[in-house]
Amino acid sequence: MRTTSVRRCAGALSAAAAALLLSAGPAAADTASPSPSPSESLAPVTTAGSSFLTATAVQPEQPVQLAGSTGDYLYWSFTAEAGQTDKIAITVTLPPTASRHGASNWAVDVFDGLRRRQACTAGAQTPTAAAGAASVTLGCTLRQVRAWAEPWSGDPLPGTYYVRLAVTGLPEQDLGLPMQVAMRITAHDSDDIQPEGGELKAPLTQPVSAGAVLTSAPPVAVEEEKDSGWNWDWLPDLSARWAWTAIGGAIAAVTGVGGYSLTRHPRRRMSNPDGFNRPSSTTRQEHPVNIT
Amino acid sequence: MLAALSLLGVPPAHADETTPKEPPKVELVLDISGSMRARDIEGHSRISVLQQSFNDVLDALPSEAQVGIRVLGATYPGNSKAVGCKDTQQLVPIGPIDKLEAKTAVATLRPTGFTPVGLALRAAARDLGTGETTRRIVLITDGEDTCAPPDPCEVARELAAQGTHLVVDTLGLTLNDKVRRQLTCIASATGGTYTAVTSKTQLTNRINQLVDRAATTYTQTPAQVDGTDNCTGAPLLSPGAYTDREQLQEHRWYRVPVRDGQELRASVSVSLDRALNRDYGVLLRAVSQDGRELVRGTDAGSDRTDVLSTGLRWSAEQDAPDQTVCLVVSNSFSSPTATTAATPGMPLELIVGVVDSSPAPNGPDLGRGWGLLGLLALAGLVGGLLFGWLARWRVSIWRAN
Fold it and tell me: Are B286 and B326 in contact (CB under 8 A)?
């Protein structure tokens, strides 16, 4: 609880500090990025890939509408940034009931750029469509994308994400029947990027072009002489901590002066701070301040 | 940074613009066997639905598409199986298509003979030739192969294993169980799709969709590589996409050089191209040269699926010497029959990436560091000055009074 409220304050402060101190800085660049604004401009996507390599790229809020056959494996990909939480909603209009022979199980699987399975925190990821159902709805809300994670963890990181829609179980006779698929990805951005200061040097996006088998390890390039000139790398990045620290410093100054005045003699304490000689009244001495 | 990310993040479908590309190649294989006379698609005969649908498909073809047409069972009306099962011809050669000519050629076809699907697939693969890009066969048939052997499914698997990047999409013009089983088998063996055609519109749309897919995705083909059974002699891979075959319970080793300050990223997908027992899994491990496991990625499942994939990241600790990391792909698939377990192995796709490593972010800067001290001192000074000025201002006001 405490950390959350502190973080919220920090967020507010950082926004204020960024606005006040630096109108154009890295923080401003991060928050002011207009995600290609809602919908109308985005043309609907009417295709889907059939494998990871051929996945059709879609953008958040871009409608996807296509006809397929039950049994198809449909792949799409999208890009997520740190702090983003993505939600995938899919509606499959099933083939006519007359041509179906029973219930079917559907699944939407989400993989990160390394094709590692990603967990859904909410949504009907693997629903079952009853034999008489006209359509089935699938959903998956992903975890918030982190800015950095240890290589050994499976945490969601910035980069490509793959969505695969498939029927995972159905009567064999129902394969290949016509179906309609509608999908939409919604992205919710947040400034609260975790871990603070973390950065993934390259987004999780694997190459799609053919590789080449090497005959020997490539020679190590000679290390370039490091630029010994002056730079600002030692300064911490612009963040809420600067505001906290600066305000902390100001408070420290105030409390310092307060503390200093407390240490002065009670009789002279109420006199003018610059030592201007003013006769002190007796009434003031009736309220001595405790000095311990 | 955002712009850079969105540029990099979307799978670079056009990443290799520099490499000279050949045009997309598609061959449509049409079954013109005797059974195509049956009138069971919306009251029309199968052949007439096919012909009408083809008119629309040919009209919608993109000009740069190289499409060929091959027919099977179109010429021999007799009863001799030996002759009828060799009945397949290329009606329109692969290349920029003359739409009018192609329409006429298709319109004059009459349902005639046998259904040598396996043979037609082999011939179609020959027509498409070999190359760096994906080739697609769209097989449209209404009957099971009456000429096996060769079994069309075996043929499909064999063609897929030749490394010519061949995908067979199948369309069944009947809801017959045997046909469906055969066509789904062919489709899954090559990573293609199966569609049961129930109307003319559906047929037209589907063929258009498949030709479009061929045109937009045909360049994404991985390089062929042969993994070995131990690390020492394993192929040394540079970043990129690779394909290989792995048999059931086989281990395949590869090596990747990783320098100081670099991070290794690897993903693997194993396609389930045949009937397998219910539970299965795939394991990708990164192992150091002296046999120490560095990191692993794993995935398992038990439902119907097309591929099983996993990935891993690994980077050495700071200032470690350059090293070569071994990658080993293993699986826990099992087959219900001995025949399906045999060669060729299952298609394996390995993606290797080597990027700058991302060191752990520093802890919070508060409470430590020279920058913090300087800032605090400055803030204190400013505060003190303000306080002092305020006091002097008050004094001057008081004096004035």
Answer: yes
